[in-house]
Design brief:
The complex is a heterodimer. Chain A is an all-beta fold. Chain A contains no helices and eleven strands. Chain B is an all-beta fold. In chain B, the strands form two sheets. In chain B, strands 2, 4, 5, 6, 9, 10 and 11 form a seven-stranded mixed beta sheet that branches. The chains are: A mainly beta, B mainly beta.
């Protein structure tokens, strides 16, 4: 089955700096890669996703890059703000058109300090 | 709010108790999911339902019993749980099995 590894487990940055979280996956047939943000006391919320037919996607301060050859994808947050502090999860799945199963990474706790 | 609600938000139960977790989605989705989130571990998929039919049981012990009476409601019936079952139980829904999943806030379960 799919295996997703995520690094680092914790990340502390100063407000205004950039943060990068990296994930690797094992199943070369995986074709959908979402990123979720989980704040304290809440469930994971989708913040951005990318499919295997593109290499990069950006939404304001958040971007995701995908390297299919190396089987890794990364989340980039620029100009970090205190409200970006949360746990971030990457996931991978193989969508066959009729079914898919998300495999999650272990999460990265991001702390944005003033 | 994501449109997925879960009750109760917190639950403490003894190993001999029977309790149920409830999930409701107001998004018109057809697929619903139960996940278990434990500290320092990835989210673990437990069950998947699509149009009220169970499509996946990820080798979950029988002390966890899901029920999906319709596409908007999902229950997880709990009985004779173990302390290691203490975790955050998350419900999610999606339009179809290959679409984006939206999560509820979870139920924090503690088994004494």
């Amino acid at each position: 089955g799919e295996n997703v590894e995520q690094h680092p487990s914790t990340l502390s940055v100063q407000e205004g700096d950039s943060a990068v979280i990296k994930c690797t996956y094992s199943d070369s047939a995986s074709n959908y890669f979402p990123w979720y943000k989980q704040e304290l006391g809440k469930g994971p919320q989708l913040i951005i996703d990318i499919r295997s037919n593109v290499g990069e996607k950006k939404d304001q301060r958040i971007a995701v890059t995908l390297n299919k050859t190396a089987k890794h994808f990364s989340l980039h947050i620029t100009e970090t703000q205190p409200e970006d502090s949360a746990v971030y999860f990457c996931a991978a799945s193989r969508n066959t058109g009729t079914a898919s199963k998300l495999t999650f990474g272990t999460g990265t706790r991001l702390q944005v300090t003033l | 709010e994501t449109g997925v609600t879960q009750t109760p938000r917190h639950l403490v139960m003894g190993m001999t108790n029977k309790k149920s977790l409830k999930c409701e989605q107001h998004l018109g989705h057809n697929a619903m999911y139960w996940y278990k989130q434990s500290a320092k571990k990835p989210l673990e998929l437990m069950f998947v339902y699509n149009f009220k039919e169970q499509t996946e049981n990820n080798s979950v012990p029988s002390r966890f019993s899901p029920e999906c009476p319709n596409s908007s409601h999902l229950f997880l019936h709990l009985h004779t749980l173990q302390p290691e079952d203490s975790a955050l139980y998350l419900c999610a829904s999606s339009r179809g099995l290959t679409d984006t999943q939206y999560f509820g806030p979870g139920t924090r379960l503690t088994v004494l």
